[in-house]
Amino acid sequence: MLKARPAAPSPFFEQPRLAQDASRHLPFQKVWITPDPAVLAEGKSKKKLYIAPVTLHFLRPVDKKLANLEITNGGVHRQEADVARRLQQEFILAFQRSPSPLYQLASKPAPDTLILQLALIELNPTSPKGNAVMTMMKLAVSPVAGLASFFTKGTMAIEGKVIEPHSGRAFFQFADKEADRLTFLSTRDFQPYGHAVYTMREWAVQFEQVTRTAPGQIMKDSSFMTLMPY
After folding, report:
1. Tell me: the pLDDT tens digits for 12-51?
2. Closest C-alpha among 163, 151, 158 to residue 202
3. Beta carbons of 177 and 64 less than 8 angstroms apart
4. What domains can you pick out in the chain, each with its CATH number?
């Protein structure tokens, strides 16, 4: 209930049955690396990366009851397109801000440039009204009451793949799903996509770090809770 379970793969993710559970050594739940040595060698030889616009073609309907109710009543507005643009921008910023990025960012695809394709496959907004009730319960009853926020939490899931330009084939894929972090009191709890912004930034930084991490090195995933109020 505290950590999001992996989302079912979408058609965007190629060969999902061959994906491996990476949650113990990488900050993503599922990863896949091509077994083709030629594609892998071509991919590793490239030092430029183009981060493509995020696709919404595989986005699933909102399936959280409270979020759906607030959307229907007009209390929460859907912002999938804005979130997709923000996700692409966060990945770009992660490489621009990195002290030693493995890849130089490119403004367009090219024969010497890898392509990072991202798909937003799930986006359930946080329930501000539900979290308002949870906050009152935590203050008036017990902080333990916050565990009931499982029903008010937003969730977000993405899939990504790095394409080798010569073959047009993926040589690395990843998938991850995150839920709103558990907090005692946070302004993000009252912003439908506040936690999503935090999650996108973290995914971007994690991906950039993975690209320059030695094989076999363990990278910890994000915690299910935070003390940061904003």
Report:
1. 999 999 999 988 888 899 999 999 999 999 999 999 999 9
2. 158
3. no
4. 27-211 (3.40.50)
Q: Answer yes or no: pTM beyond 0.70.
A: yes
Q: Identify whether the C-beta of residue 103 lies closer than 8 Å to the C-beta of residue 94.
A: no
Rounded Cα–Cα distance for residues 186 and 192 (Å): 12
**Span 83-99, pLDDT tens digits:** 999 999 999 999 999 99
**What is the rounded CA–CA span in Å between residue 71 and residue 21?**
34
